[in-house]
Write a structure and sequence with these properties.
Oligomer: single chain
Mean pLDDT: 97
Distance between the termini: 40 Å
Order of helices and strands: EEEHEHEHEHEHHEHEHEHHHH
Low-confidence stretches: none
Helix content: 40-55%
Radius of gyration: 18 Å
């Protein structure tokens, strides 16, 4: 298994569309902007990327571009579905492009038991030598993976190396951090909890807000890794309105709205996602002005 370290800021990248197709030129420019902003790793084809609405051909091209523009940064790719067979097919469709790791979400809609989650993630990890990052996001999946299940997987399965913890439950995240085996990393999946989670020993964040403000979010995580909480808190406080705005409608609607206002992508989505309400445009415009972006 290839060893990778995922510390600091990773961006859960949006997928831009134009006239019904993926806008690969815009995506390449967005990735370059992330790299220039100092983010530490990239995550295409996650929730923020509207991945369920993409074909395998589109997913492959997106991953190719991310790897071409990463300048040595790890590229973690979303590969999870709501069935084992579907996830294995998803991995097989991308594996020859050599992503550095797979982000695998708790199966959605099914509402599996904790034992079902354990057996599922174990089977996925055994299907590939590549590192696996667990993704716990009960707001999307309908079920929470408990700390005990995450820790069991971390101890039992060598290539399960990290968790993106997006339960919104700081106590649960801190329990995982406290009892995790050496080398297992806990990444925040909720922008507004990044500072607190990193203060408790978390490795960093997989961020939505960094689509819009990559340098600010990356700098904040780097300051936390350096132990400079006072300066990190100043950046975190400045970003709080952005964190909130990114989720006033379903992600990635607000983030793509901001990028559209910045002239970085079209105001286009694939159903069931749709353009933002006027109120969201107004809020995002105010946030961008406040942050001088």
């Amino acid at each position: 298994m290839k060893k990778i370290s995922l510390k600091g800021c990773g961006t859960a990248l949006v997928t831009p569309f134009k006239n019904g197709s993926v806008d690969y030129d815009a995506f390449r420019a967005l990735v370059k902007r992330q790299v220039e902003g100092g983010v530490d790793f990239l995550l295409p084809l996650g929730t923020t990327g509207e991945t369920p609405c993409l074909s395998n051909e589109e997913r492959r091209e997106i991953l190719k571009i991310a790897k071409q523009e990463a300048q040595g940064r790890p590229v973690v790719v979303g590969g999870g579905t709501n069935s084992l067979s579907g996830t294995l097919e998803s991995i097989a469709a991308l594996d020859d492009l050599q992503p550095d790791a797979y982000l695998i979400v708790v199966p959605y809609y099914n509402k599996p038991t904790q034992e079902g989650m354990y057996q599922y993630f174990k089977a996925v990890a055994q299907s590939t030598p590549r590192p696996i990052i667990l993704y716990n996001v009960p707001g999307r999946t309908g079920v929470n993976m408990l700390a005990a299940t995450t820790l069991r997987l971390a101890r039992d399965v060598e290539n399960i190396i990290a968790v993106k913890e997006a339960s919104g439950n700081l106590i649960q995240a801190l329990e995982i951090i406290k009892d995790a085996p050496e080398g297992f990393q806990v990444l925040c999946g909720d922008d507004d909890l990044t500072l607190q989670m990193m203060a408790g020993g978390g490795a960093g964040v997989i961020s939505v807000a960094s689509n819009i403000a990559p340098k600010m979010v990356a700098d904040m995580t780097h300051l936390m890794l350096q132990g400079n909480k006072a300066e990190a808190s100043k950046l975190d406080n400045a970003l709080k309105r952005l964190y909130k705005a990114c989720f006033i409608e379903s992600n990635p609607i607000p983030a793509k709205t901001a990028l559209f206002q910045m002239g970085l992508c079209c105001n286009e989505f694939r159903l069931p996602m749709c353009p933002a309400q006027e109120s969201t445009h107004n809020i995002m415009s105010g946030v961008l002005k406040e942050l001088s972006i």
